[in-house]
Structure formats: structure tokens, C-alpha cells
Amino acid sequence: MPLPELEEFRREVALLRDDQAIRAVRRADGRYALSSLSIDDVARLLHHEPSYYLLLAATSLNRTSLRRATQEEEAQLVSPRQRRAFAVRTRLPVSADFDAVVANAITLRMGDLQRKARGKTEQVFRERLEGEGIPLFMSPPRRVVPGIVIAGRKPDGVWPDPATGEPPVIYLEIKRIRRVADDIQKRLYELAEASLEMKLLYGDAPLTGLGIGDNRDVRDESTALRLRQQVAGVRPTVVGLFLCPRAEAERYRLGAEALIDRIFFQEEIEDCIAFISQTINEHGAD
């Protein structure tokens, strides 16, 4: 996934070596005594994106853990405007390799940019559905479908609006897969779990164990088809749109669709939209 912002960030965070406060804590052996930064210097650095990520990386904090750190008893003794700086400063290392901290900062920033990119993907898809008059509900605001394993599931798309109390008819998850071989199986497992939970809660899936006596038989394609017969057509219809090349991910489709109604890949977006529209229209005709 191209991230031009990351390259600019990479350049800016490397330049922090020349920041006056950071340069002042450089030791004779080339390492940095970041714990020697003053609380005012830390507060200043936290107000700029590259140095903010640099300090998070140096302390092994993230946005969530930093917020928790500011609520600790000792931090409450500090004035509110300096609590973040205090929480960070107390965790800064006595000796740090600057290049290693920069590398960790880039990794943190990359994760945030990837999440931002996923949000843009959902926005583009939502606008496309709106333009074609397909009433799928997508965030914002985030729609919450009550569940058991996860009390409040938050699909990327759902219809009808769960705020009305109506059970879901269609349940959509959009997954951007960077490395198919490494990432797709976990995402498929998560969606299969959601599919079974939704169909057992809101549908009447007649799930029966297959009682396979020889584990070598599981590799037979007929096994996946036998499972599919139990979930296919049971509402809600669960759909996964996996943004990755079909050529790399096709081999996962049969197994995934044993428990998930439909899986679409990045070359199949038109088919995905048509399927969502058809499912909603068929329900309206019931």
C-alpha cells in the first residue's frame, strides 16, 4: 500500500537528531539519555507529530496506554497541561539508540496511517453505495450489532439499521490484506466466528457436527460443501470484501465460504455491490 505520508514522516523524524534539546542529551558513546529531557522539552516535543511518535516509541507507549498513564495517581499531582509530558518523561530511557527509536517510531506511524487508509476505503465504498441507491448502513456513525462473544459487534456495513432493533439481514466486513499468506487466515477466522454467532443469534442455522472419523477426510472439498449447506441461506447474509489480489487468495475461498456466505476480492467489487443490492431487494420483496 503506497503511503507517501510515511516517507515524509521518515524524513522528518530522522531530522530530530538535530533538535536542540535532543542533541543536548547525546552521550559521548553516541547513545541518548532521553530521560534527561526536561518536562518542558517533552511537552514541546509532544506537540509535533514526528517528535510525538519518537517519544512514544522511546517509551513503548501508544495512544491508549499514554491516556491511561495520564490517569495514574502520580500523574494526577501534576497540572493538567503537563500530565502527558510527565507520563512520557517518567518512562524515557536512560540510554537509547537513536536509530532504533526512529525505526520504532516509523512502525507506529505506519500503523496509524494504515488505519487511516482503511477508513478512507470504507468512505469511498460508502459513497459508491449511496450513489447507486443501496441503503447499506456504514460508519459514521458506527452501527453496533449486539452479540455474545463480542457484546457489541461493529460491522463495516449492515442493513437494516440495528438502532431500530431489527435483526441484521446483511452483515459486511471490509478487510485490507497487505500480505495474503500472513494475514488472510486470521481475518477469515474472525469473520467466520462473526458469521456463526450472527446466524445462531438471529437466524435458525441447523448446525450439526459432521462426525468425521478420519482427519484426512477434512481435506476433501465435499466436507466444506456439507458445512455450507447448513449456513447458506440463513440470515443474516454475511459478506467479506477482502482487498487483496484474487490470484493470491482464491485458494481460501472454498473453505471460507463453508461458514461465510460470500467472499469477494479486489477484482470483484462490482460483483460484491450487485450481491449486496440483490440481498437487500430480495428481503424487501419477502
Automatic annotation (TrEMBL):
What is the protein's given name? Uncharacterized protein
